[in-house]
Structure formats: structure tokens, C-alpha cells
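## Example pair
The file below holds two records. Each record gives the amino-acid sequence first, followed by its C-alpha cell line.
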Amino acid sequence: MNASELILNPDGSIYHLSLLPGDIANDIIFVGDQDRVPLVSKYFDQIEIKKNKREFVTHTGRIGTKRITVISTGIGTDNIDIVMNELDALANINLENRSINPNPTSLNIFRIGTSGSIHPAITIGSTVVSTLAIGLDTLGAYYNAEKMHHLHLPEWSYITKRHDFALSTFGSHFSEGITVTCPGFYAPQGRSLRLPSSNKISFEQLHSLEKDGYHITNMEMETAGIYILASFMGHKAISFNAILAERLTGNFSTESDQVVNNLIKDTLEWIVRLP
């Protein structure tokens, strides 16, 4: 791996994240917003590491004996491509001699994100676990992802799934569904401000789609990218979605901070109980 492929900073840290291998735990929480990182780490008993570069803010600490990292990814699967590849490099490449470690490390990746519901049964304030994810972005095309061939979705769209974490100890009620990962927030998700969207697929068409007993429930911008890269790299990923918007009714949460905080606490309590 030459210097233009595996780029390191002068201190030996990985290029975009500015992290060293010892800076990360095996259990890693993804949040999109950098301001959400301290909202997670405030529940740590101790914080060992705080680093930031660009939109990537990282805190690593402990709850009891469980070591946890929380990192902000920014928005979109283009950023997910950076974060997943660089975390994998930290876990599985010897940065000093640029060789792949013979015994791969599998990371646990937990996304705590916000999302909009497109299914009438999924209401504001609820939690959706993305059992499957459909990527409408093009990232999957670069990693030979399984193509999605339903409802005349773009030919490059792909489908992937979460790791089979046991959810029996997750404290609060949640729904499982199919999450659609979009390449933008406005027109790609059917929003129109001054510019019209050419997206001809209705929410009713989408939420009527069923696969493996699950319906499409929500839209966001990261989950499919996390899942496809985790599956190919040998990591374990799951995405928890705090529902802040109901796209069918046009409503948005008036208590979004509390909804997100509840999901943070539920997810941390569940992670600590994992073996």
C-alpha cells in the first residue's frame, strides 16, 4: 500500500480521522452530527480520548469495564466510505509497515441516527431498527453489492442487511423494517423547496414493498453504506433510527432532542449488556 493509497498524517495517524489504532474500541457508535458526540460520551464513566479533525469528532471511554468509541461521520455514504475504510485500516492494517494483519479484527458498529418515517405505522418518537437497507446512492456499485430490482428503483440501487445482534435486551419498544438510504436530503427524498423533485416513486409505493416479511419504513442517508461495507470487511453493524418526521402527514417532532437522547440511553444500556 503506497503513500497515496494508505495516507497517514505526520504523527502516523490515519488521514481523515486523525486516529491511531489504540484510540478506538471494538464497540463503536456512529452519529452523524459532531455535536451529538458529547451527548453520547456524557454517559461514559470516564473519557480517555478526545480527538477531532474536519467533521470527524471521536471520544473513547468506558462505561464500567466496557470500552466504547463514539465518532461523528458527517452526512451521507460518501463520508461513510471514508470512516469505515479508515476504521478498518486502524483495526486490520499495520500502519507502520503497511501490511494487512494476519488475524482480522471484527468491530461492532452501532449507528444512532435520525430519520423520517414513510410508513403509517411508524410514528414520531418511535425507534426503527434497520433489518434491511436499500441504498439509492451509488456506493454499492463500487463494492459489487447485491442489486435491488423492485419498483423501478435506479439500476445501481442495492440491498444489504444488519448483523444478527440479539435485541431481546433492548429496553424500549422498537419496530424492525427496511430503511432506504438516499444520496441527498431534498429531491432524493422527495422534498421540494424551490426546485421540483423528479422522483416519481410515491411513499405509498415504497412502504407497500415487502421483503423477508419487512416493509419499507423510513428514509435516511447512511445505513446501507454502513451495512454493505461492514459485511464485506467482516464487521458487525446495526442501525437504530430515531423517527423525527412523518413524511406521510408532513409533521416533524417538537421534542427532537428528547427523542434522540432517549435512543442514546437505550442503545448505550443495550451495548453494555452485550457479551
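Second record, same layout:
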Amino acid sequence: MLRLLKLSLPVVVLGVFVGSNDPLLPFLQGTWIAPLFQPFEYGNSIIFNFSCGYLISIFFWFLLVHIPESQQRNIIKDNMRKRYESFKQNTICNLLYAAGGTAANYELVNELCDHNKFKAYFSDDNRQRWYDALNGLDENNRYIYDIHIDLKLLYNDISCVLNSVTFTDDRCHTQFVTLQENIFKLINYNDCHYDHIRHISSFLFNVLASWSSIDGKKSEDLIQKLIDHI
């Protein structure tokens, strides 16, 4: 819609000038574009009235529709960004506590919010840290419970995005829906068993390390990229 208005606006503005019976504006007289704005000999009132009406409609649409929608979109986008940051921080903190109890601290948690540093901390030569975290999750339901809470909060904010934002990119919408479905499956397990630990650990590693079991390491945070496209 906005793109169409941008394309049609110059034509409508030109219609106002060529449809008017008034003299050409002084600052346009004598310029190379002056011939474009010369009034038509016939049909002036029709072109002028149509163009003016179109411009007034654009003005009220921009004032009453576009500005409020943009403000709402920015609020939802900012809330989604904060929720995702909170999810990463809280989940990483729980993983660190599950892995070693006292290993979690504010500086390390914030550092591991970077997907590259998270992967380096929990994989390759440091893979044992990830196994320790999974064992800690399996042995202490408290950490799983806390992670479930943050997953539910993230799920609720994704639902808000899908219900409130009009997407122009079908792929972005599909990826949000897929993410919501994956989270829904994780938070609806009734007990903490091995399969659940395996599924939730796979999801968390894929998200926090920006890793794909099919394509491998990604160069950017995939969820943050989705949020940026809201």
C-alpha cells in the first residue's frame, strides 16, 4: 500500500498543477520542468478535483492509519526484542547453573548471548560443558520449570506479533509460525523425561548458537533477524 502511494503521489501532484486554472507558481516559472506543469486547455476541473481529493485521502490515511500502525508495530517490535533478550539471558543462566552451579555470572551470561560465543563455550573442545548442563537439567526439574516459563513468555509475545502485525513478507510470517509451533510442542510436555530433555536441548542449542541441524552454523541470529523484519 505504502509503495503504491509513493509511486502515485508524483502523478497526483502533477495533476493538481495541470488541472488548475491558476498561474504557474513563481519559483517554477522559467525552469526546465515548467512545461510539465502547464495547465491543460480542457478538463481542468475534473483532473484538479480528482487530484486534490486523492491528496486529501492520502493525508488522512497517513494521519489516521499509517502513523498509528507504525507506532504499534514499533512498540510490538521493541517488546519482542526485549522478550527475546530476556529469554536468552534467563535460559543461559539456567544452563550455566545446571552445568556447574556457581558458574553463572552477569558478565558471562551477557557474553554468551552472542551466538558465536555461546557455540564456542558449549561445543568442540568444551562439549562436556553442554553435557553437564543437560545432566543438570535432567536431575533438577527446577531449571526445566524456569526454562518453560521463559518459553511460555516468548510464545505469548510471538502470538502477539502474529495477531497484531500485518506481514508483507510471507517467508517471515511462515518462520514466525514455525517458531511458535516448535515452542508450543516443547512447553506442552507433561513430564520431564529423556525425550523431553533431548528435544528441548536441541531447540535451545539451535536458537542460542544459531545452529541448524541441516545447514550447520549460521552467520547471524535467526530469531533476531525475524524480529528486525517486523
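Notes on the second record: The radius of gyration is 28 Å. The first strand starts at residue 211 and ends at 212.
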